Every structure is written in C-alpha cells, then in structure tokens.
Amino acid sequence: MTRPVPAIVILGNGSLATARSIQQLYPGALIHGLAERVDGADRVYREFGATLRELYQQDTPIIALCAAGIVIRTLAPLLLEKGVEPPVLAVAEDGSAVVPLLGGLGGVNVLAREIAAHLDVAAAITTSGELRFGTCLLNPPSGYTLGDLALGKRFVSDLLAGETVRIEGSAPWLAQAQLPEDQQARLTVHVGHAERAPAANELLIYPRNVLVAVTGDVADRPGAIREALHQAKIAVQSVACLLAADTEMASATLREAALELGVPLRFVSAVGVASALARQAIGQSVSIVGDDAIAIALAEQPLDPLQIGRPRGRLAVIGLGPGAAELMVPAVKAELARANDVLGYETYVRMAGPFRADQVLHCTDNREEMQRARHAFELAAQGRSVVVVSSGDPGVFAMAAAVLEALHESTDAAWHNVDLEILPGVSASLATAAQAGAPLGHDFCVLSLSDNLKPWSIIEKRLDLAAQADLALAFYNPISRSRPWQLGQALDIVSRHRTPDTAVVLGRDIGRPGQTLRVTTLGQLTPDQVDMRTMVLIGSSTTCVFPRSGGGDWVYTPRWYGDKPNA
Ligand code: SAH
What we know:
It is built from 17 helices and 28 strands. The chain is of the alpha/beta class and 567 residues long. The chain has a 6-stranded mixed β-sheet with strand order 3-2-1-4-5-6, with helices on both faces. Strands 13-12-11-15-14 form a 5-stranded mixed β-sheet, with helices on both faces. Strands 18-17-19-16-20 form a 5-stranded parallel β-sheet, sandwiched between helices. The longest helix has 13 residues, at 369-381.
C-alpha cells in the first residue's frame, strides 16, 4: 500500500547535500528550492510561506530543511482548521537533527525514524506513547484503521499511567512493540472486522479486509450497503473498497456511494451477479455473504485496493498558464502530481515538469493533435490517470476542443466512461493584458490569425466586423514562417476602422524567461515586430495610454462607453 511522496523544501545551497541524501530514501520526492538561492533544485519556488502552506493543504508530507520555528510560524494559521494532516518534519540543514513536528497520525514519527537512521542520527521523538511502547497505537499500519481517535487518546493515556493491556485478534505489527501485556488486563486492543459498539476500555482497530461488490442501480446505494453490512454484522470501517462492473464506471450514484463510505472504487469486467464480481476480483476461495445486488467478501488479510480490479481512468486537459509557475492554478498542479501519463507538445511537457521517474511522458509534434487526443483516451480507458497539457488555457486554440472532438467521434464505451475534466489556465491574452494594465477592460474579441484550420476569407470577415464593432482585439498565432503575409493583411483591415494612434500591446514570451512587453500604435506596428511567440492586443477607439512611474506605459480600456458616467 503506497504512501504519499514527500516534498523536500530547502532555502539555500547549504542544504542541498542533505536534501539529496534524504531524496534517496523517497524515490519520486522532489526538492523544492528557493529561486535565486538554490542551484539545481527539482522545482523552484519564490515564496516559502505560500509554498509550504500549499503543500500542507494538498496533504503532501513536508520535509523542511530549516529551523523548526520557521515551519511552525509558517503553518500556524492553518493548524486550527485541520483535522487530518500530513507529516511535517524539520531537518537541520547539515542533517544533524530530525524533528517531527506535525502529523502524528499521518506517520510523522515513522518518517522521522527513517530519515534519522539514514542520516545516522537520533530522531527527536517526543510522543510519550511511542517512546514508551515503541509504536503509535493510534496510527496502525496501512491495511488497518483506528475506530475512534478521542477514545484512543484516553486509552493511551491510561496505558501511560501504568495500566496493562490485552490484545484480542491478530495485530502482527504489535508483536515488536513493548506493550505491558497481561491476559487479565482491563484495557483491550481489539482487532477485528465485526460490527461492535466500542466499550470504554477498548481500543478498536479494524482490518480493512472486506470488499463490497455491487450491481444494478439502487436508489440509496450507501444506505443499502450500510444495511447489508449491518445484517452481516460487519463494520463499515473494515471495508477496503467498493467493487462494480466496468459497465457502470460512469455511474454518479456509485461515485457518491464510494465517497460517502470513504472507500476507493474499483472495477472488473461485468460477469453477472455481485458475488461473481467479488470472486473475479479477489479469488474463488474467499467467503462471501449477501445477494445478487450486494455481496460482501471477507479476505483473510487486509486488502490492498490498488491490487483489486482497476480504477476508473481519468483524463484531464490542463492549461499551464503562460509559463511562470506562480500563474499555474493549484488544481492543475495537483493534477500533474497525480498523473501516470503526460501527453503534449514537447515544449509544454517540459514546462509542466519536472516529473517523477514513475510518470510516463509522451511528447509529440505540435501538429498531431487528434492523434494525441486519441492516444490519451486509449491510456485513460485502461484505468490510468492521464494529463494532456496545453499552454495558457486548454480551451483557447488548444487541446480541449481536440479531446472533445475525439470523444464525440468515438463509439467506444470505455472512452465515454473515462472521468474527463478540463482544467483552465491563464490564457496568453489575459497574461499579456495584465502586464500592460487593462487593455481588455471592456468588450473584446479573441481571434486566431492561423488559416491552417479555417479559410482566410472567414478570418478577413471576422476581423472586418470586429474592428467595425470597435472591440479591442487579441490576436493569437499572429504570424509564422509558413504564414508570413496574413498579419499585414489583418492590420490593413483593422486600419480601415481604427486611427493610426490606436494603442497596441505586443507581449512576447510572457511569463517565460526573456519576456518582453512593448506598447506601440497601430500606425507604427509592422509584421516584422511580431513572431509566433507574440500576443498582439489592439485597443478600441477608447483605449488609453499614460506613462507609469519607473518607465513604460499603462494601457487600459475604460469600463464605460460614450460619455463618462458620474463616478
Ligand atoms: N492555449 C494558448 C494559446 C495557444 S495558440 C493560450 O491560451 O494562451 C499559440 C499562440 O498563443 C502563440 O502564437 C502566441 O500568439 C500566443 N502565446 C502563447 N503563449 C504566449 C506567451 N507566453 N506570450 C505571448 N504569447 C503567447
């Protein structure tokens, strides 16, 4: 059963050696280094606080190579709200101290011990129960789950006060613990999948060894499952996963049921009744109770959901924004982190990285969009988590429409069952406009000047009408080696309706290294000032320009039209 991959966060080059050493323990862990202070980090950040809080909120285990106080102060605003939290550790930059700070129930002490052993120092474990008994009773290993945390805390403090304990059921991980065991003890650790009201002197730990298979559509699915478990006297907490036929992959009620029960959802080929599904997934010999619609299978050992059937595949079409990491939306970052496969034009795939060794990159030529879209569905239909990258926004002259077109054309049910989501990004016109001020502050029109996929006559007509309508204009794909003359013609058309002093903004490589921003006028604009990495914004008749202190200009299009209304 897999643990989430930690992030290693460092502030300076002095910590790099220790960070690399810790990285060997956790394949896939990335080193996040402060911009301009760290050379050769896997990922560069600008703001320590924002970065750390984002990782924490995404439940990423954090190994910060800096003073414990800095970490505490940074995360303090988030601590009160959070129930479950990821492990957070501070490690001295020279590797001489390992201090678990937060996430006791998330296994922070386990991480601390691993790192300390690797660095050949002692972990600064401060958890009394763990020091005394050599294990955190409240944090059973994966495959097991604690019944009730509040009761558990009292249980452990009773033990610390000198009580003895009895272990009922099979708890292999407690064999090495130094618990004060006594068969006559009042306190009991009870490990088992039976439904049971917790007694005051009992710590209930549930093995996740139960699989629930379902078929058919039921109105209140979670309710029916709970009832079936209750009838069978099996605890809901012991359910490792919910299993269904792959024909039901897109079912919303199934997804809700899994969410409500807090268990993963897995699928196998449709083979009739629920018990047959369960047998297909975990073997013939397993004991099964229940009927055709809901079957409950009991395994001898905890079940690893990742080994059962397959998940519903996911395909996310994401926008990276113009380039700078700060302009990438958090949902996109999270999606990249969960991806098994990443597809896209090589430049953008590289921009989306770095990636872990287990992530598969499929880089293709910029023009192979439909092929890429179909390849993405083939991968996702196998149950993989697939990301297709676009720069800017995926819905603006980019991959989202190609992906939907591929799906629309397909009759393959497996493709239609994929969990498809489009995640937006900051488009080049908006990123450029923001740097210039607000040139698109009133109505505007977005056009691609590429006549690869549409006839030039349509572009001419739209340009003419949009210019006539006095809309501010944003030109994507303004020019390229194979389309050298189109921009000149476009400017001629616009000039029929706009004066030569109309404001123009040229943004090149915005949000990327070496970006340039230029404010000029329609009269002075010539195609040789523009290339395929440039965004061209042309103002309306009301667009204003005025000098900004420190050099350059502000450009904006007022929100009002005609006479200025009373402010
Ligand atoms: N989906 C992208 C647009 C793809 S079309 C988006 O939403 O931004 C490609 C065109 O976008 C380029 O020819 C250029 O005109 C513009 N463009 C993309 N990234 C840019 C950037 N960082 N700076 C300026 N223009 C950019």
